[in-house]
Amino acid sequence: MVVILKPGVTTEKRNQLINWLNAQNLQVHISEGAQYTVLGLVGDTAHTDMDLIASLDIVDSVKQVSDPFKRCNRKFHPDDSVISVGDLQVGGGNFTVIAGPCSVESEEQIVAVAKAVKASGATMLRGGAFKPRTSPYDFQGLKADGLELLKTARAETGLPIVTEIVSLADIDLFEDIDVIQVGARSMQNFELLKELGHISKPILLKRGLSATLKELLMSCEYIMAGGNEQIILCERGIRTYSDYTRNTLDLSAVPMLHELSHLPVIVDPSHATGLSRLVRPMAMAATACGADGLIIEVHNDPLHALCDGAQSLRPEEFDSLMKDLDALRKVVLK
Length: 334
Ligand code: PEP
Ligand code: MN
Hints:
8-stranded parallel beta barrel; 10 helices; binds manganese (II) ion
């Protein structure tokens, strides 16, 4: 249920109502918009008297929210959420480009790629240190050493770092990481999501390989229910009948998620297609349909990459794409 307050309601009257709602075992999520304040009620509202609340002189209207996801719901928070990563802002009209290799392989590699993508205009650096691989015999990442190398690359370039967590047991190692990525394979690791709800750090939550949008938003709700509301959603392609691409990029997820949720939505054209030559067209399409940003794999030597070389752009290809994206955004934003 959402309670929309009339403009100009005093804090005292608002708090009286919130205390009354809390006393009925309802948690209240407050969203202050330019004109209206929206109170989102979380809990069992089956016995809450909607008519009584609607009759209060400070209340404009009351609406039932039947969706199971509440805190990430746009009905609870009509304005776009903007997630701060240091001085950077994600969402709300800002365009974020996260770029870097699939995995951190060495200091030379991560620092060289970080410098190159920064020079092309990327706003954050990606790189996996803990890799969720389909085969146990494939490179599993440099783990804690990889995180240290990412920090070195951050120190050299000033780019905030984004990297994936695969196990709750590693959480302490992520204290100095700017954005924690929850990968497609972990999207429904509910115990991990709950724990990430208790920290104060932005989370990049990727859509599971076969997850519906509702399931993605319910996973997001797990994190938000713990109090961490800094979430960036990511569409990275889903499993369908695609035979020539790694996944199927569901671009309709972008406007749909924007309709359903107030959180920023970015797109990963690299994992969605698995082919570097398809990254450019899909990145352009994602930008054109309103994505708040992109996460793109870039490697200085894709032929010898330890992971996902086939879908990695070379730095010069990334640079050219960034120029095209700039030009496209000027047209799209008109
Ligand atoms: C990644 O970004 O490195 C990754 C493994 O992505 P996904 O979880 O989308 O497969
Ligand atoms: Mn990858």
